[in-house]
Amino acid sequence: MEATTSPAPLASAPPVDTSGLYRDITGFAHDAPAWLQHLLEVWTELGLVLFGVLFAAAWWRARRADSRALAVAVLAPLATALAYVVSELLKSVIDEERPCRAVSGAVRSLAECPPHGDWSFPSNHATIAGASAVALALIWRGLGWLTLPLALLMAFSRVFVGVHYPFDVAVGLALGALVAFLVIRLLPPPLARLITAMRTSPNAAVRWCVGPGPAAHAYAAVR
Length: 223
Description:
Number of helices: 10
Strand content: under 5%
Order of helices and strands: HHHHHHHHHH
Largest sheet: none
Shape: elongated
Distance between the termini: 90 Å
Structural class: mainly alpha
Helix content: 55-70%
Number of strands: 0
């Protein structure tokens, strides 16, 4: 008896049809100057590195602040990681094919089209960008003027290089922002209590990680 193989599962259609806008943006990308194409191709990945550097800077800065401020700085990258996990779970439920493969009449994507099975909705990059931007703005008052435009640019770059629909990145931004906001609003109190205890730990490495807090600087100022 001959073995039969089951057909590969079909990808679902986009939840909202933004294929027309996708064609417009990718068409603009192909007509854009080479330097702009290269800039956004690089930024689509480099932005993740920059957000990581900002998280590290925020943690270092918060070591000299009160326990709640440091708790928020510690939670920020964790909230971003959680947002990424949520976006991956959604991808496993909504099997949306990449527009660089599915949209007829579109120009060739600037970036290599991900393989079939690496689904499109929502955009992981946009989710991480949205979570990072909101988390950093909540940690570091006044930083939102930098992080929010950077997140929008990263989301746009994913459409520009041709690997996501506009709706994918819009939902990714909103999802990341929501997860980060909820985590940072709900979880700091118990972590702040732990940090307060860690600041009196006999272990020097533990004390270095959480920093001296504001009390040490107040003591130094009156000496």
